[in-house]
Amino acid sequence: MLSSWWISWTILQSSVFIMLFKTAAVVALAATANCAAVLSEKRNSGCPGDQEPTQVRLAYHGDRGMSVSWNTKSKLAKPSVEFGTTMELGGTVSSSESVTYPTSSTYNNHVVITGLQPNTRYHYQPYCSHRIYSFTTAKSVGDGDDFKFAMVGDMGTMGPDGLSTTVGKGAANPLKPGEKNSIDSLHEHKTSFDFVWHVGDIAYADSWLKEENGGYITPLNLNDKGAEYDKILNEFYDEIEPITRDVPYMVGPGNHEANCDNGANLTLCLPGQLNFTGYRAHWNMPSDVSGGVGNFWYSWNHGMVHFITFNTETDFPNAPDEPGGSGAEFAGPFAPSGAQLAWLAKDLAAVDRKKTPWVIAAGHRPWYVSTSECKECQAAFEPLLLKYGVDLILHGHKHFYERESAINNFTASEIEKNPSAPWYIVNGAAGHYDGLDTPTFPLVPTSRKLIVEYGWSLFTVHNCTHLTTEFIASGNGSVLDTATLYKARTCDVTKDHH
Questions:
Q1: CA nearest 199: which of 108, 274, 295?
Q2: 481 touches 404 (CB < 8 A)
Q3: Spatial distance between the Cα atoms of 261 and 36, rounded to a whole number of angstroms
Q4: Is residue 27 scored above 80 in pLDDT?
Q5: 170 CB neighbour count, 10 Å cutoff
């Protein structure tokens, strides 16, 4: 039998070894971080402060590319990004895109990195940044591994110039003291999804006058030369940066991007705050590699899914935001007559449903919803979405969550029974200054679940036959609704053990 002193000595040695091992690991991690910081400082020493990147953001650019964008106080002659699979980086790509517009206090810089490996983690550093960030490229077409993505709609600035614990006259649904908002919640969960899809109504900078008239922002100032609008816009982009610098943030247009006063009094709007100007300058969606137009309509693939953003605001017959439209935004069009619908038909017809069996489309305004619907949107888009067998259609615009059935021209079918029609989900409940909406009762016959609470949607693409949605309450992260779509089919997808 071993003596007690030997056992004690052995335990002591083991404890010391474990302590030393842990200390060495911490030192190694610290050394790696310090090395990265030193590398970062050396690369960007001597950069003037007005060239320091803010609002860093990512967007997919095909499965082998990534768009990196950021804002600076001054114009960059040659925006550039260093990148690589290690912290030493090693590659550099640059562009000439450093653009601004009247009333903007910043320049938008856009660089696209191409030739990357799919589903691969890269580190990157924008010009003059003192930090190295990372991203993961899109899954290759036909990759059969499961994945998750987040969807939000109608998410605005949070805090004293947006949604907070107080409201002004005419607004409602303030946050409870200490309650998390949707930006907080997305940031907390960002390692659980591959990307965010913001389906229109971004920042709500056009609420500035409503907030001033309601006594929420003081003083009332109609002659600030667009400063309050610009301030709210930049606050939002700063607030979402902890998300957008790490995961791609794909966007679509909503009516609140159109101008500075949401169609109410456009005489107040200076040239830089009309006609989707800020939206067009800030984002860099992959329309150039998908045949689309700007940040208005485009598509991309990610594993088993073909994703489509379409534009419910302009560029189709009787579009609500065009001159003479019901939205009174006096915006667009942004392409020749018929271009968007022709593009959508061509894009859908080209999908290889063996490799990307799922087709998911998103446009801001809904036409199946328990309140006023966009009939002109339905007339334009539903025939094509039905013809080509789109599986799921996502909308925002209405400030609540409503899960519908699968629907073909008002006829419902249940999603667990292999429907041939698209499944519709409306989620404009992410939160902004105005609060939430009250639906119209009785609910439409196609409605299956309605929730009036701040939240966002998390989707899981399990395989080629099953896709699940969860509605996540922003305040506490609980799942308030879940449902799974089933499609009976076989697919030519493969598991990627990259």
A1: 295
A2: no
A3: 45
A4: no
A5: 14
How many C-beta atoms lie closer than 10 Å to residue 80's C-beta? 16
Going by the DSSP 8-state scheme, the letter that residue 246 receives in this structure is T
Q: Say if CB 199 and CB 153 are below 8 A apart.
A: yes
Residues 6+ apart with CB under 8 A from 495: 143, 144, 145
In a 3-state reduction of DSSP, which class is residue 8? helix
Q: Residue with structure tokens 């094509």?
A: 384
When pLDDT is cut at 50, 70 and 90, the band that residue 211 belongs to is very high
Q: What's the pTM value of the predicted model, to 2 decimals?
A: 0.91
Contact 458, 150 (CB under 8 A): yes
Whether 483 and 468 have beta carbons less than 8 Å apart is answered as: yes
Partner residues linked to 99 by β-bridges: 108
The 10s digit of each residue's pLDDT in 44-78 is 667 999 999 999 999 999 889 999 999 999 999 99
DSSP labels, 79-140: -EEEEESSTT--EEEE-SEEE--TT-SSEEEEEEE-SPPTT-EEEEEETT-SS-EEEEPPPP
DSSP state of 49: G
Residue whose token pair is 């859908």: 348
The conformation of residue 431, written as its DSSP 8-state character, comes to B
CA distance 483 to 365: 22
Tokens of 209: 């006058």
Residue 251 contacts residue 285 (beta carbons within 8 Å): yes
CA-only gyration radius of the chain, Å: 24
Question: What pLDDT score does 206 carry?
Answer: 97
Residue found by looking up tokens 């400030």 in the block: 399
Q: What is the DSSP letter of 143?
A: B
Q: What is the pLDDT of residues 131-161, one digit of tens each?
A: 999 999 999 999 999 999 999 999 999 999 9
pLDDT of residue 40: 53
Give whole-number Cα distances, 243 to 85, 236, 402, 407, in Å: 20, 12, 25, 34
